[in-house]
Amino acid sequence: MTNTLSYPIGTPGKPWREDERNQWRVSQPQQRRYQDDVVPRIMALADRFEILTYGQLSYAGEAYTLFALRNGNPEPSLPTALVTGGVHGYETSGVLGALQFLETRANEYAGKINLLVAPCVSPWAYERVNRWNYDAFDPNRSFAADSDVRECAALIKLVAEHAGPYLLHIDLHETTDSDESEFRPALAARDGEEFEPGIIPDGFYLVDDSENPQPAFQAAIISAVEQVTHIAPPDDDGKIIGSPMVARGVINYPQAKYAMCSSLTGARFTTTTEVYPDSPRATPRICNDAQVAAVCAALDFALAHA
């Protein structure tokens, strides 16, 4: 039932200290480049969007500029929508889906809503295809007001400086097989806890806010995405990743309690997408298209029910 012993870093039952974090950092080679993959696509949008620099990260001599894009100066009479990708850097379609939305569909919402898009919140993790940041923190559990996770603090400040009212926040994620083979065992080892294996669902699903459930909103997104990719079924216990499925392809989390990114705006409509890129029925293009379909469906529903 436990394979904490198999994780190569740390002592079972003992939380990591700085020595173990350093071992973990050394074990995370750079596999792709933010400056080559992401930044040029952002800069290519300068003729259509205002590009904002909202933070600078520096980790062991490696520097990263954090970028967001907005569709012009905010119009006070319009609501605001936030789209975030790459909170978990390894979840590739979160980053590429946000960029594809900007490149192909975002102009459709000009004059309807103030768009603010942060395509790659965690560039160090993007480069290492990892869930955590340099300090071995999970950004998607660190969006508290006093967060000392640098990626989170920068995004919190950006959101505060672009006061809404926020109508919508959609946060683009993936659930991958590596969640079970690497990231959950690493979490157990880091925290000195026992690893209990779970089941990775085959298909797309959404995470709603149990403190502010919006079932019709989630259903509209599911309806749009299933035209692109398949929706995750529940396991034999009626659950998805350990949480009861409350509607087709939807589970609930208390977003603020878990300090999730989707909690930071206080928007009426919030969701976290979860694409499954490891399915034999999926391709990178399908995954990116599914994220774009989710963003557009979320925007369309929110605007229709503002």
Could you provide a short overview of the structure?
This protein has 9 helices and 10 strands.
Could you characterize the architecture of this molecule?
- It is a single chain.
- This protein is of the alpha/beta class and about 300 residues long.
- Helix content is about 30%, strand content about 20%.
- It has 9 helices and 10 strands.
- It has helices at about 20-25, 35, 40-45, 90-105, 125-130, 150-160, 175-190, 215-225, 285-305; strands at about 50-60, 60-70, 80-85, 115-120, 165-175, 205-210, 240, 245, 250-255, 270-275.
- A hairpin with a 2-residue loop joins strand 1 (about 50-60) and strand 2.
- It starts with 17 loop residues before the first helix and ends with a helix.
- GO terms for molecular function: hydrolase activity, acting on ester bonds; metallocarboxypeptidase activity; zinc ion binding.
- This is Peptidase.
